[in-house]
Structures are given as C-alpha cells and as structure tokens.
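Lab meeting, item 3. Inverse folding demo.
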C-alpha cells in the first residue's frame, strides 16, 4: 500500500473539491500535521447549482436535519462533533432558529469555513478545475460532489470502467422576510415544540386545490437532451410540482401537512368545534435562512419551474402574495458512483487504495453524511501518509453504517444499473438491537447509546476539537 514520505517536508496530500466533504477532509489532514492541497474549481468555473465561490456552500437547504441525537440525522451530527468535525462545529456556531433542526446562516457559515481553510498554515488552496485523476502513487481524496466537472467525470468513467449513475436534485426558493404578510401567516413550530421558529402560511381546501392546479399547469425549465433520457429524481428531495403530480393529497402528507400547526387568532385549539371549523387544509412552512431573520426559504419547495412561473405560482400561497424573491429554485443533475462495485468501507477505491472518495459522489445523501465521508476519507488519507492502517467505523455507528452500506449494498452486475441508489442516514441501516424495544423513541435512544459507546475508542483518538472562526 503506497504511503507518502514521513520526512520533515512530506509531499502535500491532494483533496479535489471544497464542498462539505472536501472541506472536512482537508481540515482533518491538516490537523494530523500534514500539508494538503485543496483544489476548488469555483469561481474559475461555476457549477449549475452554486451561487458563490465559498467553501462548503449549502445548495438545497440551510438545514442539516433534526438536531436531537435520537434522530438519525442528529445522531450523525453528534458523532461528528465527538470526532472533532470542523464543518459541524462551524454549523453549531452559525446556527439559526429552526425548531428541532440544525439550520445555519449560509453566508456566514461558508465564509467561516473558507477562512478556516485559507488561513491554516498547512493548507494550500488552488482555484482551478482539476480535470485529471491523481496518479497511481499519489494519496488523494476525490470530493467533487454530485456536480463533478465533465472532464473529471470522463476520467472516472475510464478509470472505473462503469458509466456514472445520476439523479436529479433541486433547491428551494428564498424570499425576503419583510415581504411576508404576517396578518395571514403566523409563527409556530409543529405541536408548539420549542420556540415559534417557522412562518406558516395556511390554506383552505379551495386555495390548496387552486395552488395545485397552478403547479400542474406551470411551465418547467428545459432539460438538455441527454438529461431527458433519464430524468429520475431522488425520492427525498422531489420537486414540489412532482409531488403535486402524484395525487391530490400527496403534498398534504409531505411538506404541506397541516397537523400540529395552529394560529391562536383562530380561537381555542382545545375547543373541538373551533378546531374542526378553523383548522387549515394545508400549510406551507418557511424556515429562517439567516441569523437576522431577513431571509426565509420555503421548506420542501424544491422546484424546476421557470423563474417567472415560480413567482406567479408561489404568490398564490396565502401570505406570499407580495413575496420578494432573492433566489429562485433550480434543478441540477447529480452524479454518483456505483460504490458497492468500487469502494471499501474505508472509502478507498479497491483498485487503487491510495485514492479515496468522499461525499455525495459516493452515494450518501444529506449534508451531514457528506461531512462524515469527508472526515473518514481525510482521516484515512492522513493515516496512509503516516504509514498507518486506514480505519473503518463500527456499523453500529451511523457513520459506520453509511460507509458499510455504500461499500456492501446490493448492486447490478457489470453493465447493469439501478441496483444502487443514494442513501440518507436512517436507523434502518443499523444492526438490530440485542432485544426488541417497543417504543420508537426508546428504541432510537438505545441505538444512539450503543452508537456513541462504540464510537468512544475513536473519539478518544480524535484531535482536540478545532477552534471555529466566528
């Protein structure tokens, strides 16, 4: 297995891509005392979805998901905190109110991570497109994300001998808070859990049906010919117009579900007659985007509608009649590897152990999952350079469960497709508990307790939690 020199001036390790995974990987390598070259193509070359040149830009949403550690996303975040993750630590430092979720001020968050890497004495940032795979003897982390440039994607296809898999992903619009009509909309969190961190736009049945009809008839942005041939969406991030097409009530059981949301102006929620007469048929929620509460994103409103159509249709939502949009929704093609054919749970390519992959390109889904891949790939790249054996985390941990899944999931044989699809963190990936626990919350709590206990030997070895740029 190749390793870099351990002399006083070792060759820098290479990380390609400064998204969530690449940022974390570069930091872990540098924290191990090794020099690292972090290559990022933005702003020299833009991607279809990014809006800035900052590192770890959050494209779809500003939320990392549930914060509580008895939820799958929250457990993954907690594992990363204990492992000294820069990206999750910075998310905590730049959190904005979001009920029970970890959401961040995107601008300040990405700017802080960019500064942390650019100012690290062992990190050299190169702003250019990296169109070639590293050579066989070079220790490197491939963290180019789902928007890998075509030149590098072609190199990957030649290296792996397999066509890339892909799906379509979309981002939600953002509106100015001052343009939301709070005489119609109201602040609340579902079931009044925590503070009233969301703005809620209630709909009657008639308003909902009119809105759905407008979605169904609205004009979509054009896809390129090669994209039309296989325009499939990731089920966890469907465009709102796709949900509308799936049935009259699909949106009401998804992002527009009205349960647990009540405006005190409607009357006493405990009065059954009032509740039956006044409750909303559907509710659109908006989540705070920045620390000052000036920007709000429409939760679950990923879309591929043309921008003019977005303005027209979304202004049919009660309370958003005069909404001012600071960003419209976009859709983009996401590429990922058939990882079960290619990667080990250490995130090394089986055919070239000095090359590691991390983030969404490996087939994990979600921000925290990308960070987890970056932590593991960066840690293992550093270990290879130090002449140490790479590690994999126990499958009883959420990080270990994800990395073992992408390395071992059923997948079609050579030349076949469709057997492997991106996977978000979930408790279904974890091995069963020794004995059955009936209550869901209690069962998830037991999964958490076992995961954190099994992670303890690795957290003891992790470096001291890094300082986070304010």
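The presenter then showed the designed sequence:
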């Amino acid at each position: 297995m190749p390793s870099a020199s351990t002399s006083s001036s070792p060759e820098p390790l290479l990380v390609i891509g400064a998204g969530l995974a690449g940022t974390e990987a570069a930091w872990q390598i540098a924290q191990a005392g090794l020099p690292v070259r972090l290559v990022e193509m933005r702003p020299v070359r833009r991607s279809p979805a990014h809006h800035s040149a900052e590192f770890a830009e959050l494209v779809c949403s500003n939320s990392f998901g549930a914060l509580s550690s008895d939820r799958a996303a929250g457990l993954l975040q907690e594992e990363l905190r204990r492992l000294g993750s820069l990206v999750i630590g910075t998310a905590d430092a730049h959190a904005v109110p979001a009920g029970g979720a970890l959401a961040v001020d995107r601008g300040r968050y990405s700017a802080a991570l960019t500064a942390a890497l650019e100012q690290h004495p062992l990190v050299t940032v190169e702003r250019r497109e990296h169109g070639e795979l590293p050579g066989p003897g070079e220790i490197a982390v491939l963290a180019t994300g789902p928007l890998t440039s075509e030149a590098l994607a072609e190199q990957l296809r030649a290296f792996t001998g397999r066509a890339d898999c892909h799906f379509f992903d979309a981002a939600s619009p953002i509106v100015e808070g001052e343009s939301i009509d709070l005489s119609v909309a109201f602040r609340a969190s579902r079931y009044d859990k925590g503070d009233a961190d969301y703005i809620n736009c209630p709909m009657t049945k008639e308003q909902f049906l009119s809105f759905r009809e407008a979605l169904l008839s609205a004009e979509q942005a054009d896809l390129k010919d090669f994209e039309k041939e296989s325009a499939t969406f990731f089920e966890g991030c469907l465009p709102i117009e796709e949900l509308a097409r799936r049935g009259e009530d699909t949106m009401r059981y998804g992002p527009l579900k009205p349960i647990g949301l009540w405006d005190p102006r409607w009357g006493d929620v405990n009065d059954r007659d009032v509740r039956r007469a006044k409750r909303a048929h559907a509710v659109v929620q908006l989540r705070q985007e920045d620390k000052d509460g000036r920007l709000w994103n429409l939760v679950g409103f990923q879309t591929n509608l043309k921008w003019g159509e977005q303005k027209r249709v979304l202004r049919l939502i009660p309370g958003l009649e005069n909404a001012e949009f600071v960003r419209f929704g976009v859709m983009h093609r996401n590429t990922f590897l058939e990882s079960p054919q290619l990667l080990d749970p250490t995130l090394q390519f089986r055919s070239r152990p000095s090359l590691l992959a991390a983030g969404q390109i490996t087939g994990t889904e979600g921000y925290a999952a990308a960070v987890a891949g970056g932590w593991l790939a960066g840690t293992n790249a550093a270990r290879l350079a130090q002449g140490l054996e790479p590690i994999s985390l126990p499958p009883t941990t959420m990080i270990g469960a994800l990395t073992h899944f992408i390395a071992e999931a059923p997948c079609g044989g050579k030349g076949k497709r469709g057997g492997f699809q991106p996977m978000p963190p979930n408790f279904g990936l974890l091995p069963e508990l020794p004995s059955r626990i009936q209550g869901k919350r209690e069962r998830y709590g037991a999964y958490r307790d076992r995961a954190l206990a099994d992670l303890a030997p690795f957290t003891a070895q992790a470096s001291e939690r890094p300082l986070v740029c304010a």
